[in-house]
Amino acid sequence: MKYEVKTPEPLDWIVERHYGRKAGDIIGKVYDANRGLARYQGDIPPGTVIELPELPSGNLVTTARLWG
What we know:
Blueprint: E1 2-4, E2 9-10, H1 11-19, H2 24-33, E3 43-44, E4 49-51
Antiparallel strand pairs: 1-4, 2-3
InterPro entries: GpX-like (IPR008861)
Protein name: Phage tail protein
């Protein structure tokens, strides 16, 4: 899936929003799919298109809200 950055934001926020968590192994896979992302220190600028790779279903975590 392709994602276009709309406002400056760090990659871990994008990964957490898309995959439901921001584990380093997932961020590593996103960097592998987007070799140029490593040049950004901090926020990724608007207009940047990022490939968010499909992950095996065993890597995804479903969270449940227990209170509130």
